[in-house]
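Reviewer 2 asked us to include a model.

Predict the structure of this chain.
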Amino acid sequence: MKGLMMDYPLTLTHFLERAAKLFPRKEIVSQLPSGTHRYTYADLHRRARRLASALERLGVRPGDRVATFAWNHHRHLELYFAVPGLGAVLHTLNIRLFPDQIAYIVNHAEDKLIVVDDSLLPVLEKLQDKLQGVQGYVVMADGPLPETTLAPVYSYEELVEQGDEAYEFPRLDEDDAAIMCYTSGTTGNPKGCLYSHKALVVHTLVECLPDCLGLSERDVVMPIVPMFHVNAWGLPFAATLVGAKQVHPGPFLHPRDVAALIQQERVTITAGVPTIWIGLYELLKTERYDLSSLRGIIVGGSAVPKSLIEGFERDFGLQVVQAWGMTEMSPLGTVSRPKSHLEATLPEEELLELRAKQGIPAPFVELRAVDDQGREVPWDGRTMGELQVRGPWIIREYYHDPRTREAFDRGWFRTGDVVTIDPEGYIRIVDRTKDLVKSGGEWISSVELENAIMAHPKVLEAAVIAIPHPKWQERPLAVVVPKDEFKGQITKREILEFLSGKFAKWWLPDDVVFVERLPKTSVGKFDKKALRKQFESYTWPPREEEGAD
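Predicted model (structure tokens):
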């Protein structure tokens, strides 16, 4: 017997209409090259309806892909609702990918239109001959339509102006695709992920829970994570659902710009990858900003150094909350908040260790870790295994990609992360399977070494990679960026002595190389693939085996 429930599809349109009815005067703030732009949820609703009707007149039909090539701002937010609202699929293109990868993604997704910021036109102009199925380009600009070789080309603002304000969003099936994102493509071509309306609605509801990201109408939410990267981790949808004020930084991501915007708009929740917050932390040590409004810095994308969590709280009274997820997971998987009984009983140092883990699974996310034989490993906090997940907002396959077969195991998605899970259910990411150092038949975690090195007071950033070794198969090489004031004043011996006692001797890097900067991926993570390429001709110094015995 089925429940006698009303037929009410779970679609993203509800978020927009709720915000317009209940919070019509709440602000949405964008930092643009032309200055600060302010408007309200009522304006967002009106313009999104106009835009949807204009896109329909341009020939956009249900299921068509409309791509964006843009920074975080109010126009991008309008597209978040207008495109899925008319039944089409919003495809957020990562503007930081290599040109060939962008062309591959546009063609693989079969994008019909691309909506592009005027400042990013040169990138697409160089690619237009390779973009096979694109039928038009819509340019977002504050002034007149700029000159461009793209054709046919339309003005975003003119489309909005000509649109129908009385347009009614159609009734959609909640299982229809709403958003499309591609992985960042660190190995091979990027892979496409399609999210349904229902999946995103359920993801948003869970994300707002107090033990997840905990958003409410009282918050001022500023996603630093790009809107082209897994929907800015869902924060634009979550903020709209609860009616929170939104702040979008546009292309202004320098730590000084971020600090000034938090201070100016009294931001309460912000989110981004660790490299953003490392830069902000260093800035705050020399320049004064009032960031007292912040109640949460959400950090994800890669493991957060324990020293950064401790430093923000100790030096500035700011709380860092670590979260973990993947493009394939829409992206929320886990959030690291201490359970109440642990917060009441654990010493400060153990609480810090707990907060440096990736956390417990969000509601509806199931996870397990398995060994090389596919057996589930115990939740003992020590035994390592590959993390596998399943849940209502986790994809079941890649979009038209044969790599689906190797990525899924009888209904479970294989994440490629090597983890331990403790008896309380907190996962700790030890490494990516491809980044582990396999030394003498044993695994060494590059992540744990990196986080320990970055706790050194003279170190800004550090990455550890595996280098082939004639005796041990592989050994760890530490690649370190010193802080500006310590360049030329830090040695390999200092780093190794700092690590000594924290790890078994055979874990310690056999060499430490100091560099000006580390390569980053398109989403701000350390690019281990590029580092391995950079050091592919590296040879170990004499007597390196002492550190491996």
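Residues 360-432 form a domain with the Luciferase; domain 3 fold (CATH 2.30.38.10). The mean pLDDT is 94. We have added this to the supplementary material.
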